[in-house]
Amino acid sequence: MSIHIQTNYNKDENIWIVDIKGEIDIYTANKVKEDLNKMLDEQMADFKINCLELTYIDSTGLGVLIGILKRLKKEEKNINIVNPKPNISKLFHITGLDKIFVIEGE
Amino acid sequence: MSIHIQTNYNKDENIWIVDIKGEIDIYTANKVKEDLNKMLDEQMADFKINCLELTYIDSTGLGVLIGILKRLKKEEKNINIVNPKPNISKLFHITGLDKIFVIEGE
Amino acid sequence: MGDHFSISVPSKPEYVNVVRLTASAIACRMGFNIEQIEDIKVAIAEACTNAIKHGIKNREENFKIQFLVDEEKLEIDVEDEGHGFSCNEIEEPDLENPKEGGLGIFIIKSLMDDVQINSNIGKGTSIKMIKYLGDDL
Amino acid sequence: MGDHFSISVPSKPEYVNVVRLTASAIACRMGFNIEQIEDIKVAIAEACTNAIKHGIKNREENFKIQFLVDEEKLEIDVEDEGHGFSCNEIEEPDLENPKEGGLGIFIIKSLMDDVQINSNIGKGTSIKMIKYLGDDL
Lengths: 106, 106, 137, 137
Ligand SMILES: Nc1ncnc2c1ncn2[C@@H]1O[C@H](COP(=O)(O)OP(=O)(O)O)[C@@H](O)[C@H]1O
Ligand SMILES: Nc1ncnc2c1ncn2[C@@H]1O[C@H](COP(=O)(O)OP(=O)(O)O)[C@@H](O)[C@H]1O
What we know:
The complex is a heterotetramer, with 2 copies of chain A and 2 copies of chain C.
Chain A: E1 3-10, E2 15-24, H1 29-42, E3 46-50, E4 54-57, H2 59-73, E5 79-82, H3 86-94, E6 102-104
Parallel strand pairs in A: 2-3, 2-4, 3-5, 5-6
Antiparallel strand pairs in A: 1-2
Helix pairs in contact in A: 1-2
Chain C: E1 3-10, H1 16-30, H2 34-53, E2 62-69, E3 73-80, H3 104-111, E4 114-120, E5 124-132
Antiparallel strand pairs in C: 1-2, 2-3, 3-5, 4-5
The structure holds adenosine-5'-diphosphate (2 copies).
């Protein structure tokens, strides 16, 4: 599977740090969805998603992030998308999702 | 064109130093053949072909090298194949061409 | 007259990235720049994802992709023989109410220069998309 | 029963690397290791090169590649409708007398686990080659 997710919970700041490497598409989206949801089951907290090594995303991947964001927003938490590559930040912009996610390091 | 050839004539040692970057296949072989033959027209000398950034070769590319080698052998010159990647040195071995080319740095 | 590729692909999620790589190899050979190649990869993947999600009647089916290459453009046609849908069903994404789905066709239209969707209920769907070489429009 | 891809490719040298990338994406998805993927890339390129060099009657023709994927192996079939040849024409390479040509089929047979060539003069050629997953034989 061409996706690798590494997670780290920072207790002081109550934040999940997530490194996603690889591609989120129709093949890998389910695994990403399960992993992120499991983290929220364990601990409700803001998400910081490090995208430096995320090489590809499409609507299926954006859909997963939107689903997680909706769960977080109910508890007034948010998702930070950090250091997305140009192709990835382009998709957040054209879909307007840059207005509901916090995007850093573009 | 996914091939890039850089050449340098070393007068003291009477040797051509050739850096080949990219892929030698049916699409790029003609350019390689022309470039190498032009060098021999200009100056008959041994060849040192640096293959560190040669990512791909197949029978079409080997054929070009054999053609050049035949021209060189008539003048008792040779071709040194330097630092070939594993996939490239494998082809020299299975075809037995490692016995007529000098291969270094495998 | 241009060059013509066609591929028949198993309707399975694990093969969408094979299509992406094929498309990007063709686009790269044609001289598209990196950003354009990324656009083409995403657009074709969205169309394949739809063919796989909505466009199959049974799991054993393949769907088909045509690539038409000429000096000025790449035309890609993704065709399935699935359920089809009525094109006026497509809604624009609503940011007040973000949804997990419904972004695919919107993204294809944003990234490609020209998009035509033909769908027949019960017969199947074809998404035709064109990207022009040269500067982005 | 396995998965089945087919591609129809224009008979032009510039597209052999598109086929190589497609083949390596399929092989990678199947779990072949790097060396095996390189073997498959070279073998399929040799077969495509032959289809383009010897296997076309006119420049506008396409040739066809089939990929059959199952749990234990990848089978690749490169088919053209060109001149064909008589298989006993194939000579082993002779190192005493190295030639510019004549290495392609020898390389395919060395890199793949099973190779079958079918050719009909005037009708065309098919080269079928199999690579097994798991350790090299
Ligand atoms: N190939 C197809 N076959 C059948 N229906 C399709 C196809 N492509 C798109 N659709 C329909 O159009 C809708 C919108 O597609 P899209 O924008 O890609 O979003 P999503 O697939 O996430 O719903 C789909 O929900 C589906 O009803
Ligand atoms: N697809 C094909 N159509 C017609 N003839 C072919 C085909 N493939 C191979 N051949 C014949 O077999 C010979 C040996 O092929 P090969 O080992 O690849 O070496 P080369 O192509 O360099 O001659 C070719 O010279 C040609 O006569």
